[in-house]
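[job 0412] stage=fold_complex status=start
inputs:
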Amino acid sequence: MIHLDDITYVRLGTPDLDLAADFATRILGLEVTERGAKSVHLRSDARAHTLCYVEGDPAYQVAGFEVSDAAELAAAAEVLEALGHRVTAGTPGEAAARGAHDFIGFDDPSGNRIELVLRPEYRGPRYYGTRDAAITGFNHIGLNSTDPVRDEIFWTRVCNARVSDRIGTIPLMRINRIHHTLALVRAEGPGIQHINHQVVAREDVLRSWQLLIRHRVPIVFGPGRHPTSGANFIYFRGPDGMVFEYSCGVDEIEDETNHRPRSFSFEPASLCMWGARPGGLIKGT
Amino acid sequence: MTEPTIVAPAYARLPVTDLALAGRFVTEFLGLPPGPAIEGGACFRASQRQHDLSFVTDAAATASGFECRDEAAFDRAAEALAGAGFPVRRADVGECAHRLVDAALLTRDRSGNAIDLVLRPHYNGRRCHLLRDTGIRFLHGIGLRSTDVEGDLAFWAALGAVVSDRVGDITYLRIDDHHHRIALHPADRPGVLNTVFAVESLDQVMQAYYHAAEHQIRVLHGPGREAVSGLVFVHLAGPDGTIFSLVSGNDDIGARQHRPRRFPFTTESLCTWGSVCTEVPEWRTEAAL
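[job 0412] stage=fold_complex status=done
writing structure:
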């Protein structure tokens, strides 16, 4: 079994690096740690970067997960290859671009590009946002799935993910104490469905809501409150159509051994207890 | 400082043209159950009391009610207001019956807002079971329009209210541990600007916001958070130009020394989250977006 310890970064291709960097700093509130000719690295917590925009096709979307050591990385490569996944080892140059000691890449069963990362770099100075978004860190992603049942098996049997709760066919999965680090959402093809950053307080979500309105940022869903995790949230659209989320108050699973996933019916009330409607964020809502 | 003679808002009596229509807003949207039948109006409960809100068709019968601590305070209030040159008259039996109180002083501030100072508002044995789960807990406060803020301040000072803070010339007054229970809003005419109900939590404020959007009820301001009190609010358009506000949070400033602060009349002062109000002249800090 592949042991994922945490979600590390997201890499996104964009045809307009300046636009993406502007949004990521001025609206989203991330901090630029490295600005190259073809890429910009942004951080949201103690790590050197948690989001990287690279010049290119927006279809290039990668999610990186941290594994504990070189043996784990080698074992993961073996497991994946045995299952027929084509595993590529990162070159030293590619690893350096990711601020990682080493990494491997592969496609999950839906075709999402996943990287397993060794020793991602941290930075001494604390994260200091470009604006007062009160971000505490990069927290989780939603991942497109062309077959959520098949993909849930991949993430929970081949990897160490555990289902915390379900909304209809959407499994919310954890790889540590946090309620979910990964959610699988039915879609036509691969891609990152949303990128979540946590904020300090419930009101920070609502404060950002007003800023988003002022900057005419399309709001996809929210502000609202998830009945599953208890978190307050708002989803909004960034460059190249990528959906970002701020949320606060994602529960931790206190009792790892005895937690039983609950199933919520697939309806708007299962996604928001305040009455917000998911505006096309998820197929079928 | 002498103890305020008034302890809490008792009721808002608001003028409407259509009692049935206004009543529907209150029962169906706010979820307030009706109180006893009253002549020329309709009354509603938001607490254990019989009467927290009423609508009247006679605009002259409009008033904001505040409860006096006890008989001694009632007498002191009458004396203080008369001494400061405000009109004071004791309500007759019929007027008390309409208000569901034992006694009332009918008076006016300098702007001409009718203020009732009441003794022993009537309670109901049954607890207030809301018609809809809106989480309303009690009548938190009343916002008044003021054509003469200094003059009206003298009125409230005579009753022992003190200034908590100001946003521009909007003046927030307290009579207990809550940051404010009365707000004076500079305006070109008198009248009740908004009636404020406390709800259980942020959840209920947000639920009201979404419920309003789905039921063609206009959101005039918010959801947002007042810089002065820290309360989360949403201001909603009620019938006939009335404004109903739902607030949540802890605005207890307790016994600690509080020196009134002055915030500029800006969007951020009225709402730290940055929500903009364009439709209510008293809260309009900038042109429409």
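[job 0412] summary: Chain A touches chain B at residues 202-203, 206-207, 209-211, 214, 223-225, 273-276 (CB under 8 Å).
[job 0412] exit 0
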